[in-house]
Design goal:
alpha/beta; 290 residues; eight-stranded mixed sheet; 10 helices; 14% strand; globular; 8 strands
């Protein structure tokens, strides 16, 4: 953990991508008091992002958490645009949260750097891609780092801050302060394949899938063993459903290429992805979500 003085949230935040993760990031900053601009590729996607954020804020209000009735104007703090050039020039922070495609992320981060001022911190929400390689797309890599949020973002307590070689101390200090302003805890790690969280989490998830594949036990039994025996709040297979089997497969393929055979994707994972059984988002993964 890195110590930092109590800090207010960033006044203005840009979020690139309004899917599940981007919407959760936008919701969290809006609930903390930031003005948030979400960038999507077209009007329909932008409207969908705003709907997801509004729904998240309503759920938070029902739980009595951030976004509750005492501060009911959070949704008014969020707008959506369809052009990277429309990012606010005075943004303090821009977080990229698009799918795990390195070329796409690099292109959008470079476009964001052109749109915002020189003091804006740029961050990627990647869960496994090399932050150092993404930094190479920027003219000022010192203001860039990984801010890996966890799903579902509004209620997850952790943010993994990933440092590239050129990330400055000032950039890290700002990111730590903003993490605390969201009511979350940071861990700081160096750039390495899978960082700390994805690397360890994936190793457990892949082994659980192999156990199902080999007939050792069914998914419910494996998850129950980890919840009750090791006090995990959620078993590795239900977590895989929540993250998305396609996302898990992409991370496994990346770590297999960089770290070797211990991260080779099981055949069962490939089969389920090929059948479209991607987890909660499709209604079926290792569990039924109908």
């Amino acid at each position: 953990m890195t110590s930092a003085a109590a800090a207010p949230p960033p006044a203005v935040v840009g979020v690139i991508g309004g899917g599940r993760m981007g919407a959760g990031i936008a919701q969290s900053f809006a609930a903390a008091g930031s003005s948030v601009v979400v960038v999507e590729h077209d009007g329909a996607a932008a409207a969908g992002a705003l709907d997801r954020i509004a729904a998240g804020l309503r759920r938070a209000a029902e739980r009595g958490g951030p976004g509750g009735p005492v501060a009911g104007d959070e949704a008014d703090r969020v707008t959506a645009v369809t052009s990277m050039s429309a990012l606010p020039h005075d943004a303090d922070l821009v977080v990229e949260a698009v799918p795990e495609n390195a070329a796409l992320k690099a292109r959008l981060l470079a476009a964001a750097e052109q749109a915002v001022g020189e003091r804006c911190v740029l961050a990627t929400n990647t869960s496994s891609l090399p932050v150092t390689e993404l930094a190479a797309a920027l003219k000022q890599p010192g203001r860039f780092l990984g801010m890996h949020f966890f799903n579902p973002v509004p209620v997850s307590a952790l943010v993994e801050l990933v440092l590239a070689p050129d990330t400055t101390g000032e950039t890290l200090t700002a990111a730590v302060g903003w993490t605390h302003a969201l009511g979350k805890q940071e861990v700081v790690v160096q750039d390495s394949p899978g960082f700390a969280s994805s690397r360890l989490g994936l190793a457990l998830g892949l082994e659980a899938i192999r156990m199902v594949e080999e007939g050792v036990a069914d998914p419910e039994a494996i998850d129950t063993a980890m919840r009750l025996g090791y006090r995990h709040p959620m078993g590795p297979l239900r977590l895989t459903d929540l993250v998305g089997l396609d996302v898990r497969l992409a991370i496994a393929e990346h770590l297999h290429a960089t770290l070797g055979e211990r991260f080779a994707p099981p055949g069962l994972l490939r089969e389920k992805v090929a059948r479209g059984e991607l987890g909660r988002k499709t209604g079926q993964g290792f569990f039924s979500w109908q």
